[in-house]
Design goal:
Elements (H helix, E strand, L loop, with lengths): L1 H41 L5 H5 L2 H4 L8 H26 L5 H23 L1 H9 L4 H18 L1 H5 L3 H19 L9 H37 L1
Length: about 230
């Protein structure tokens, strides 16, 4: 009984410490589900299940449909988590390493943008079909974001393992270049079209993986220095 009372009292203390945070978290979740419910009534042909259920189950697709694409999304999420968690740790170390914290924050924003684009097909479908923004304009915007990210943080990048970051950007850039090729206009045979898809997604996945490796190593080095 003493053990039960001890852990019950501890749980109550913890609850009092985190209730404000949980209130806003659950409020955001509630608003999300309310918004989804409203959208399911406004969007033609979209039921509530379309917004809430897994895409494979909704589309009645094989379980392996989009396997590599989902893995890529997980790697984007992992990089975003590494950047934000490292940023929090460095911030708690008396606000040390301002250049590193700025770099991690901007990397988290850029990674989040690319993650959302990858998951929701922003440049392929949302922008041209719903916002009437050409795919080329969106890709040009991403290119400018990438260039600005490198230029604003060039000193921090050059003091790190910049080979890995350069390799990641080169692979992602190659994937974008292959995606932009008007392959259907070339009149190529089936094999070459399949090869283009294989290379495009292969470079993309390798680029995302290298992006994650770079920031894991960068964050580990900075946290070790700060501690």
């Amino acid at each position: 009984m003493k053990e039960i009372r001890k852990y019950t009292a501890g749980a109550l203390v913890q609850g009092r410490q985190v209730w404000r945070m949980l209130f806003f978290v659950y409020l955001a979740i509630g608003l999300l589900f309310v918004g989804v419910g409203i959208l399911s009534q406004l969007v033609n042909g979209a039921s509530l299940e379309f917004f809430l259920r897994d895409i494979v189950a909704t589309g009645k697709l094989p379980f392996f449909a989009g396997f590599v694409s989902q893995l890529g999304g997980m790697l984007w999420c992992a990089t975003l988590t590494v950047c934000l968690f490292s940023l929090l740790i460095l911030h708690r170390q008396n606000g040390s390493m301002p250049a590193s914290r700025r770099f991690l924050l901007q990397a988290a924003i850029l990674t989040g943008v690319l993650l959302l684009d990858d998951i929701f097909l922003f440049h392929e479908e949302v922008a041209p079909e719903y916002l009437h923004i050409g795919e080329k304009f969106v890709m040009a915007g991403y290119l400018l974001l990438g260039i600005a990210f490198v230029l604003f943080n060039r000193n921090e990048i050059l003091s790190s393992e910049y080979f890995l970051l350069g390799l990641a950007l080169a692979m992602l850039g190659t994937s974008v270049f292959l995606d932009a090729l008007p392959i259907d206009d070339f009149g190529l045979r089936y094999f070459w079209k399949r090869l283009e898809i294989f290379l495009e997604d292969g470079f993309k996945f390798a680029g995302i993986t290298t992006w994650l490796i770079y920031f894991v190593r960068y964050a580990a080095q900075k946290i070790e220095s700060a501690l």
